[in-house]
Each structure stands twice: as C-alpha cells, then as structure tokens.
Records
---
Amino acid sequence: MTQEMKPVHEDGGMPFFCGSDNECFNECCRDLNQALTPYDILRLKNNLGIESAVFLRRYTSRHSGPESGLPVVGFKPNPATGHTCPFVTETGCSVYPDRPASCRMYPLARAVSRSRVTGEIREYFALIEEDHCKGFGKNTGKTVRQWLDTQAVDTHNFYNDKLMALISLKNAMMPGKLEEPQADMFYLALYDLDTFRLRIFHQNLLAEFCVPQSVSDTIRTSDEALLDVGLQWVQNQLFGRDMHCFEPAQEI
C-alpha cells in the first residue's frame, strides 16, 4: 500500500468525502496496524458497556516501544480476517459515535507544537492519500477546520495531547527504556481505568496523596476525570513531581 502526504492549512479546502456510496467503503478498516490511545479505549469500552480490563483482554494486544519501553496498545492482529477492525460491518462502523481519533481524523494527519512560554498548542495538518481510498477530489464546500468540526475530534485531541506531553516529558527526563513495573503502572493508570479506580477506592492506591473530596467524588463516576488523575499520578510516580493535591479535571 502506497501513500502520499500533502500539507494542508486548516483554512484551506477539504477535497474529500467518505460515505457508503464510495466504492472503497470500509477498505480503510482493513489491513490495520492501529494504535489506540487511552481516550480511545475509554470511549470504546463505555460504548460496549464493558470494563476496561475486559475490553483490553478481548480486543487488544500490548507491546512495548522498542526504545522507550512505553506500552503500546492496538487491536489484536487477526490474519484470518485480513486484520480487519473488529467493529466494522458491511454497513459500516458499529461503534461509530465512539470510534478512535485516528478514524475520525482520516485522511488527515495531525501534528502539534507547544510554546514553551505560553503552553499554547499549534496544529499542523497533512492529507494522507492512499491507493485504496477513492474519496479524494470531491468538493465538500468545507474547509479543513469545518470538516474536522463534523468529526467531533476535539475532545480526543485534548486528551491525546496530554498523553503526548507526558511522553515528551518522559523522553526528556528519563531517556531510554522504562522498566517493566513502570510500564505496568503507566498501563494501569491510563489504559485500564476501571482497575485503576478499583485500586484507588478498595486498595487505597492514593492514600499517601491529598485527594480533594470534590476530586474523589468525581472520579467515582467520571472516566475523563479519572484519566486526568491517572496522568497526574504517572507524572508523580515517574518523575517525582511535587504534587500537593490532585487537580480537578480540566475542560476543553
């Protein structure tokens, strides 16, 4: 499979349309080698109504980044189906409202840079043109930004940017490969949220920390707030971040 990347501006036109009328419909859901982010898994397991540990065991595989040792989670490879997404059907995606960020963004690639002074994030985009995709060259009348707004990807990017900031901090402060217990801790707090919650409330995982009552109450039911706590906890455990109290979940 060949692909070409063409930089595009968010105010430029989006010459792409995907729909069931396209002759390539569902082809982008095959031959997958797709990494899933913590927020992807949060949305998918809630869509299916199952706990994170069940979702991870049933649908995903885990391996370690060869240089970082960070856990990488993706759909289980299934050669029998041509590595097809487990949620694709003849009529399309069965978990479409909660599909992963990479599915929402396709065929756009997104990169970000963060100002060291203000913390402001700047986005850059490119079109990924692959041979199998026949959705290009169609006038949608939308700019790249307007098209992205229809994909409801902002919340995914919000949490994914937090993950990338954590990974960048790890690479700067702890270059090299994580030890297995550290990788397990990373996996627990960010990917296996329901088990993380269980360990907080039934095994006193955060007993040594200040957890405001408002935060404690919120993370009992909010996975987004729990993911925020997980990101803060991992920073403390990996880098010894001085954390007087967990901060309330941020909003986009």
---
Amino acid sequence: MGSKSETVIPLFGILDVTGEVIMMWVILAVAAVLSILATRNMKERPGKFQNMIETGIEALDNFFSGIIGKKHSRKYFFFLGSLFIFIIFANYSGLIPGVGLTKYLKAPTSSLSTTLGLGVASFLFLQIAGLAHGAKHYFKRFVSPMFFMLPLLVLDEFIKPASLALRLFGNVFGEETVTHELYSLLPIGVPVIMMVLSLLFCAIQAVVFTMLVSIYLEEGLE
C-alpha cells in the first residue's frame, strides 16, 4: 500500500505495465461488462439491475445539472460521468482484499502517474469544450477584466489539473498509508474502522474531483 510502482510486464522500458495498469484494465473490463448487461435488453418497465443503473445515472445527471445546468450536463455527461465512475471504481479497488499487498494489483489512484493522467485528460477536455463553445469567448476570458491578467489566468489554467491530480493522489495515498501503518501497529479493530471510513472517503474523493472539473467547465462556459 502506497509503495513505489513496480514493473510487472516490461515493454521496452517505456510503456512498462505496473500493478496500477493491470487494475485499470480490470476496472475498464468490469465497466464495459456492466454497460453491456445494462443496455443489451432495456425495457420500459426496468428490472432491478436496469433500475439500479438508471437510478445511479440519474443521480449523476442531477449532480452535474446542479453545477452546469441540464443542457450542458447532458452534453458533457459522457466525460464527466465516465470520469466519476472510473475514479470511484479505482478508489474502491484499493479496499479489495489483497490489492496493494503485491505488485500485481494496486489501486490506480494511489499512483501519481494515474492521477496526473486524469488531470491532463480533464485539462484537455476543458480546453476543447471551451473552444467548441466559442473561440472568441475562450480567448477573451484570459484578458478579462484586464489584459495584464493574461499571464496569471494562463498559469491558473495549468495549475488546475496539477491541483486536481495532487489532491486525489494525496488523499488516496495518505488513506492507504495510514491504514497500512495502523494494521502494522494494531492488527485488530482499528484497521477495520479505517476501512469502513475509507468507504466514505473514496466516494468523497470521486465527488470532489468531478465537482471541481464541473465548476471549471461552468466557468469556461458562462
């Protein structure tokens, strides 16, 4: 838990596969299977599984609508919803027994490389969404209210993904490290309490990350 990433499958020393990458593949496979099962035989009167999935999607849509409005929520849900689902799955994967104890399976968000990747993806999404909304509006916001604000506003745009990545990594890494150390000191009782609290912390981190991306998106579209 919280240890340095180790190479599991070496690929020319450039694209080495680590335990975090393997877990990402597992998460993507699980998400793909759930999506197929939920949509392959949709009914007007949904069963329990379809109803559960629809309830979750509706809750996410309402969450994003409260920040960026219904119209933009529906338009950008493909990214925001996918981001939330991946992060919460990645966070909870660290609670699976055995994950983090070997180099073969590690929670993706416990690695700074993963959270930086999410930060960069969010940065690119925000720039593309801003430009698509209107190039004139996109560039104008960097010189408003005064032209001399340009360097600061450009710098702020690059700081946003870094802060997102460091915040998510720091919280997940810290939570895993504390749980691991408590297990070493008091193997009975206290680690169980930390794992229960982790169920809440993992969800909060996914909410905070996507909420901030939504707020940045709203600022770029207003």
---
Amino acid sequence: MKFKPDTISLASLVIAFASAFLYFLGGLYLVPALIGIVFASFFDAIDGEVARQRNLQSPRGDYVDHVIDRYVDAALIIGIGLSPYGNAVVTIFAVSGIMLTSYLGTQAQAIGLDRDYEGIMGRANRLVLIIVLGALQIILPVSYPMGILTMTPSLVLLIILAIGGHATAVTRVRRAMQKLK
C-alpha cells in the first residue's frame, strides 16, 4: 500500500504529539517518547521525498508540510519544557526562537527572495539535538541545581534551542535586509 505524502506528514504529527505528551510525563515514558520522536522525524524526512519520487509535489503539499512542521516543533518543545526536566520560562524563549526562525525563512520567500534555510538552528539540527539530548536525559536522569535553574539535559536542550533559534532568526533578518538593499 502506497501512502500519500500528506498521510505521512499527518502520521509524523500524531506521533510527535504523542511523544511530546510522553516526554511531559517523564520517568519511564522517556524511552517511548524518544522512540516516537525518532519515528516522527523519519516520517517528516521522507514525506517530501515520497512526493518528489511519485511526482506529487505541489504548493499545497509544501504548505501542509510547513504547517505540520510548526505544530510538531511547538508540541515537542512544549512537551519537553513542561516536563519534570524543563522550565516554563526557558520554554517560552525556545518556542519563540524556533517559530521566528521558521517564519523568517519563509517570509523571505514571500517577499520575493529565496527561502532561507540557513543558520545554526535549522529543523534538522533541532531534531538531532532533541534526540541526542533526550537520550542523555534517559542516561543521565540527575539534575544539578545552578542558581534559580535546575540543570538537566532537557533544560540544556531548551537553552540551546532558545539561544540558537533567536541567533538564527537575527541572522535571517540580517541576510534578508542585505539582499533587499
């Protein structure tokens, strides 16, 4: 049975939401959460390739893929951030940085420039960081009090996403402004 690219994208969304919820629960749920994140990432990676291979790519499919990607990004970061290992304030900065990064990449295209995928916190980099630091959270479940924050691998992930996301967003603004001169 051949699945349509939109079906694969939707599967990625459902798996990611379930994984985010499992991460939020923490403890023994981290292992299935991480397995789900790997599967969701895999489905996200192949939906576009399936569309190209079967000559099904379209502006509608590209739009659906981007919408689902943003929901997946938000769900995963919020699930991690509100888990026993995260921090709500840092989560706000992480989500806003990632959303701005994605928005500014497509906004460049909307005003006639090329879509901007460049920067240190692109989607693939984010997913790899989530998987690697999620695995570290399983291996190193201890926390380290540091001032007002209790450091965990998941909190380190959120801090990296926040700083990297905003740095990438600023870089994309600067690059677009240079091209618009």
